[in-house]
Amino acid sequence: MERTIVLEEYAKQRSKRIGSLRKYGVTAIFLLPYLLSFIVFFVIPLFYGVYISLTNFQYGKPGVETFNDFAWFRMLFDKTFMPGVYNSFWLAFVHTVMFSVIMIPIAILLPLSLAILVNKKPPGFKLFRALIYMPSIVPLTAAGTIFTLLFLPKSQNGLLAEFFGVEIKWFIDTWFSFDLFGQTVDISYAWIPIFLMCLWGGWGGNFIILSAGLQNVPRHLYEAADIDGCSSFRKIMNVTIPGIKPQLVLCLFTTILGYLGLYGQNYVLSSGGPSIAAIASMPAGGQTSTLMYFIQDIVANNLQFKSSLYGLGAAASLVYALFAGIISGIQMYLTREKKTGTKISEAYNKWHEIR
Amino acid sequence: MARNQITLEQYIGFRKKKEFNEKRKVNIGKIASFVFLLLFCIMWISPFIIMFFGSFRGFTDTILYPKELFYPHSGYTLENYEMLLMGKLPEGIGQVNAVQDYKIGTWLLNSCFSAIGGTLLYLLVASLAAYAFTFIDFRYRDLLFAAIIASMVIPGAATSVGNQSMVYSMGLNRSLLALIIPGLGGVYGMYLIKTFFESIPKDLIESAKMDGYSNFKIFYKIVLPLGKNVLFVQGLFGFMGGWNDLIWPQMLYGAKDTDLWTLQVGMAYIINNSKTSNLIGTALAGGVICLLPVLVMYIIAQDKIIEGMSSSGIKG
């Protein structure tokens, strides 16, 4: 049976078709550029990276690789499979963790105490705030020039050597060594310039976030504490710290993530060196290597590693990303918007009305 | 119960005592913090000053009179800048091959292209997407947005190696476009822009639609002017991020492609050179050039940058 279409119906359908085309067309124009780049440069590379880490992929020669029996991951986790790579990777891990353990409390407490001082609103506190944040906008390399000038040896007129007669070769000498799980860990003097550079410009964001948090602590709580006769130290411990807890949590986790990914400072100042004789031919075989330095050494800085160990770089970056992802996942869980008392009661009222 | 109750007299007495003490006590606190902050700031600003003056010190002065930091022995000179920007070697330095590799003009242009071009393009793409996620209804919108937000847990390191090979396969590995295009899918900026767009009253958009405005017209006549501020702040952070980035340009371009390096990659090379030659003055001049755009931007828009930084903490 033939289907007859009335003119009105046809017109209606046509306008509907055009309407939906126009509607979806507009949505597509707004959304597609972003969505396309998100998929092409985030979603696909994520899986591509996993694929690279599971094959003997060679950079610049895609298409000829085969599955390689988790060899890259075995290098990272099996001590006997390839001891050199294993040692240099876990040494980089030890360096990263140790430096973070020293640096993170400083990168929270120093900005916190400065923020408390600025929050007393002394004359010119806005200028102080701007000046304190300033080192944090400085590009790593620009900061690196200053700290290089300070720590150059006497023969090259380093300022510390000239003014204070310090004879240490900062980027060459070993400071001290200790044993860890049967391995000797050498700590280079080069960690001191790196530490100072982080101390100088590594916490400005925390300072701004914490001082914004301090301004939001209700004043009446301080007055109540005054009435109860609290000392200023107890006021800080019992009013200020709980009042800025969300900001503290945020700062703590972003700082952990930041120092877990430490790369620029040790690359610019010491190039990961001085090298360690036993693993000098391995990626990041130096006394100031970090996890990120290990990855970057393979996939970017050393052409030999880039052609022979590319998959190892992908595997190491996945291991690193897993660490970092877990930490930022915890952070997002802790700082998610909580239902406050009013919100819960509102939700209850709504539910009650519906019933 | 009774322990915590205070009578009116007690309270008034307390206020009087407090007001009496307030001026003296608070002033002491203020003065102490002022002095401490002043000392701290002087200490923290001094590296800038050393860098700035050091860059105007001539080559011979740097070697012979290293202690004269602020008043160079033979006066201020532009030697270091001339050497960097024009490749003009000062007298008495001999043959220095490394300086021939210092293509700081090219690196500066590359950095500008990456930071400015990347930021503007990202703002356009991200604000279009934020508009669609806020004001246009389409199926699975909220699900899609939630999925994109959830992806923020995955750190950049997980995708960077894959991205490097993607860029190679697309034939962009010797093109400057590779500096900016992969950044267009960034989530955080889009999320911040969307949070602002949500605060625009829906009625405004509805009534504009009633008046027959198309989505594009609403976008650039109403939403963009309202969101000027947040886009500006986002742009500042985008610029600074692009300008300061070291890792991604290093992954893209190897040691040989010096024409494609950004200023950061080039500066790292210059610093490394200055450790084995006596060219630290040149490195300081490079540092000043590298710092200047960011510093000028910070001085001009300092309020906005600090405000943007603070709000990220309050919301988070």
Describe the structure.
The complex is a heterodimer of chains A (355) and B (316). In chain A, helix 5 packs across helix 7 (191-201) and helix 11 runs antiparallel to helix 15 (310-334). Chain A is mainly α and 355 residues long. The model of chain A has no long low-confidence stretch (mean pLDDT 85). Chain A is built from 16 helices and two strands. A two-stranded antiparallel ribbon of chain A has the order 1-2. With 316 residues, chain B is an all-alpha fold. Chain B has two domains: 2-99, no CATH class; 103-315, MetI-like fold (Orthogonal Bundle). In chain B, 72% of the residues lie in helices and 0% in strands. Chain B has helices at 8-55, 59-64, 79-86, 104-135, 141-150, 156-169, 177-180, 188-198, 202-210, 215-226, 228-244, 247-252, 263-276, 280-300, 302-315. Chain B starts with 7 loop residues before the first helix and ends with a helix. The interface between A and B is large, with 111 and 103 residues.
CATH architecture of the largest domain in chain B: Orthogonal Bundle
Q: What general outline of chain A do the C-alpha atoms trace?
A: flat
What is the helix tally of chain B?
A: 15
> What share of residues are in beta strands of chain A?
under 5%
Count of beta strands of chain A: 2
Order of helices and strands of chain B: HHHHHHHHHHHHHHH
